[in-house]
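Fold it.
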Amino acid sequence: MTMSLKLTNQTKKSLLAKNVLLADSFAKRSKGLLGKKSFKKENTLWIKRCQSIHTFFMSFSLDIIFVDKDLKVTNIYLDLKPWRVTPYAFKAKSVFEFTAGTIKPETIAIGDQLYVGH
């Protein structure tokens, strides 16, 4: 479901995604982006209550940003290929998933403060 909310990096004053799609139920979190052939670069999938993800059965690579309860970046994985699993992100409470190539290394760093809003 599109929330018509944006994801911004407050630390670097940059827009990361124009549309936040929320996965907050067990079913939505379990499905994630599975079954999708592609995912628009202006979108991000925000999976709440998540400390590790896998890309089994995915048909495209992902950029992954894990955040803590205050949306501070704890872990970053760029260009995570299909059939991979991220290490467990102990400090993370949720994750943002993007199509690979959406997030540039210079636009994100561990400790950056993210914001979801209008």
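The two ends are 16 Å apart (CA to CA).
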